[in-house]
Write a structure and sequence with these properties.
The structure is a single chain. The chain is of the alpha+beta class. 19% of the residues lie in helices and 28% in strands. A 6-stranded antiparallel beta sheet has the order 1-2-3-4-9-7. It has a 3-stranded antiparallel beta sheet with strand order 6-5-8, with no helix packed on it. A hairpin with a 2-residue loop joins strand 1 and strand 2.
């Protein structure tokens, strides 16, 4: 496993030079920190067994799945790993970070709490996302050819989700919010988003 540690450190140092500010210790990336062949044993080597636990986690639409949790005791470091091979705990299917704040970032530097304007600036243009008020609220579905478009051949695809609580602040905000609700695609340049100030509440990797 020493070879894996050296290889991982080399990759982390490489990605840190192009990650637009992402801390090299907490980069959520399938080319470096979390490759497709990752296993539970690798996590033990990299982070220590004491920082790993198992939990049954709600993943949406009433579905509960078992996952490995890294840094469960820390709100700012917590990360959830769902496996293709659950029995052997290897080959991740999805890895996610969600909440209000986290040390984990995507290689682009995007992380929890970033504003829609931040995300749009990273992408270099507007993007499309799903509506609010359901289990997959605010999921980005199309970067519209921007800088955050996943590169063909990548071992995984990234996901970014945004939400807001600003609709509770005024009747006008509630009207704007209701125009952006549901399993429907909206553009991030829709003016109804402006007073709602959506922020990122989840970043994730999804593997084939």
């Amino acid at each position: 496993m020493v070879r894996r540690r050296i290889h991982r450190l080399t990759l982390l140092l490489s990605v840190a030079t192009v990650s637009c500010g992402a801390d090299d210790e907490f980069v959520l990336d399938c080319k470096t920190t979390f490759p497709g062949e990752l296993s539970y044993d690798d996590l033990v080597d990299d982070y220590g067994a004491d920082n790993l636990s198992s939990e049954a986690i709600h993943v949406g639409e009433g579905i509960i799945e078992n996952a490995t949790v890294l840094f469960a005791a820390s709100d700012r470091k917590r990360l959830e790993i769902f496996w293709h091979d659950l029995a052997s705990a290897k080959n991740p299917r999805a890895i996610r970070v969600h909440g209000e704040d986290s040390e984990w970032k995507l290689p682009s530097g995007i992380g929890l709490g970033d504003s829609m304007i931040d995300v749009q600036n990273h992408n270099g243009r507007s993007f499309e996302l799903m509506g609010f008020a359901w289990d997959y609220a605010g999921t980005v579905v199309d970067w519209k050819g921007g800088a955050l478009e996943d590169v063909d051949g990548s071992a995984c695809r990234t996901a970014v989700r945004l939400n807001t609580e600003k609709y509770t602040e005024s009747a006008t905000n509630l009207v704007n919010f209701m125009r952006l609700v549901g399993d429907t695609v909206f553009s991030s340049d829709n003016p109804d988003y402006v007073p709602l100030e959506p922020t990122v509440y989840e970043i994730a990797l999804f593997y084939e």
